[in-house]
Amino acid sequence: MLLLVGIGSSLTSCREDTEQKTQDAVEAIGKDIEDNTKKAGKKIEEGARKVKDEVNEEINNTDDVNGEN
To answer: Model-level pTM?
Structure first.
């Protein structure tokens, strides 16, 4: 009987460890997604700013083509 209690206790402990590791992994994945989303947003904003600058240069005839004005 004591052996069964020990085995049951051990299985419960393993399950709790597995649940904690799973939760930690899910949180890490969520953090990675959040960080990469922020990086992607910054890249999109940077690209949009470059496009806006190029359009303004074309409109104002200030486009620097191959180092020439």
So the answer is: 0.57
C-alpha 57/C-alpha 63 separation (Å) is: 5
- 65 bridge partner residues: 68
Give which of 44, 43, 41 is closest to 33, Cα–Cα: 41
What is the distance between the alpha carbons of residues 25 and 31, in angstroms, rounded to a whole number? 10
The overall average pLDDT reported for the chain is 83
Backbone φ, ψ for residue 61 (5° rounding):
50, 40
pLDDT digits (tens, 9 = 90+) for 37-58: 999 999 999 999 999 999 998 8
Given a contact cutoff of 8 angstroms between Cβ atoms, the answer to whether 10 and 16 are in contact is: no
d(CA 2, CA 37): 53
